[in-house]
Amino acid sequence: MVFALALPVLLGMTGMAVDLGSYANDRRNLQNAADSIALAAADELPIPGQAEVAAHRWADKNGIDWNQVTFDVSGGTTAPKVSVTISRSHNFTFTRMVGISSRDVSAHAAAVKVSFAGGSGVVPWSVLQSAVDTAPNGGLVTLKYDSSGANTGNFGVIQIDGGGSNIYESDVMYGSNSAVCSATTSGCTTTSCPGTYPTPCAETAPSCDGPDCTPQTGNMTGKTQSAVDFRMNHTSSTCDSFGEVFPAQDPDGTYHLSPDCNPWTSGPGSCPTPTTLCSRRVFIVPVISDFGNGSSDPVTVQRFALVFLEGYAGACTGSSCDIQARFVKAELTANGLAGTYDPTALIHFVKLVE
């Protein structure tokens, strides 16, 4: 008799749990869809029409009826942003017995396109602004010079996490632990952290004062070779050529990084452990105007560039060890300090902000 009396209550609780679980799952799916639509649309900014076309395409991919989407582009050409809200009715099964047949379910996401203003994970090899100005997009540039190409004792290396060959080797292998920013970054000082978009948090590098960083003198051939060999040998076979990493190029020449070879996302290209085979041949380096004069003359980071590591320019023995890479003007999904959108920047990336 007790079981018979309790059975309707138990069934009602079970039904409510099923309906609530279904509702939560529907909302989670909508949120994933909203995120992907916002990121895809932001990648086409600052042109609103192209952004909306991309949003339509990704709504279809996620099985979302466009009539359920509220889409907005704002921010103009300095802080372009897309907002996506998806709303639809979710039908219940068991709670109908208590008069609740449906409820609205919705999800919201917003993404921005920004210029890369700095951050951690930067490799301390630098490329000259003059080389960027003259190198074709996808062309070779020298990142580290050997003793024959050095200028007043500098080899194209800056200190980010500090001085010394061991820190240099680690920063080349894995990227810097500290954040470094450029002269064009709003508030690029050690006192401006923490910051939020569109005013980024600036540098935390112990060897930099704002965008001015101490050069790393010394050839360090052995450490350079071990770091380069590490990056080359710990890159997956699916991301070890320029065409695999950058399979698409816009009519204006801008490259797009393959999602499977993007080390800044959680996809196949990410590097969750120090020994993971992943996409290690693509990374970000500082762009400087000149080498400076020894370690006593700081160099100013002007901006940042995305490069694909090609390796040694010849043999890396004795005092000879030039490192070359392909300079790439690209748009990608990355982690970094979000600076005001600048169409002339070398790196643009999209990120979710809501």
Describe the structure.
The protein is an alpha+beta fold and 354 residues long. The chain folds into two domains: 2-114, no CATH class; 118-352, no CATH class. It contains six helices and 19 strands. The strands form four sheets. Strands 1, 2, 3, 12, 13, 17, 18 and 19 form an eight-stranded mixed sheet that branches. Strands 5, 6, 9, 10, 14, 15 and 16 form a seven-stranded mixed sheet that branches. Helix 4 runs parallel beside helix 5 (221-233). The termini are far apart. The model is unreliable at 191-200 (pLDDT under 50).
Q: Count of DSSP E strands?
A: 19
Percentage of residues in DSSP E strands: 25-35%
Total number of distinct structural domains: 2
Question: In percent, how helical is the residue content?
Answer: 10-25%
Task: Quote the distance from N terminus to C terminus.
Answer: 53 Å
- Ranges with pLDDT <50 over ≥5 residues? 191-200
Question: Largest sheet, described in full?
Answer: 8 strands, mixed
Secondary structure category: alpha+beta
* Shape designation: elongated
Could you give a quick summary of the protein structure above?
With 354 residues, the protein is of the alpha+beta class. It has six helices and 19 strands.
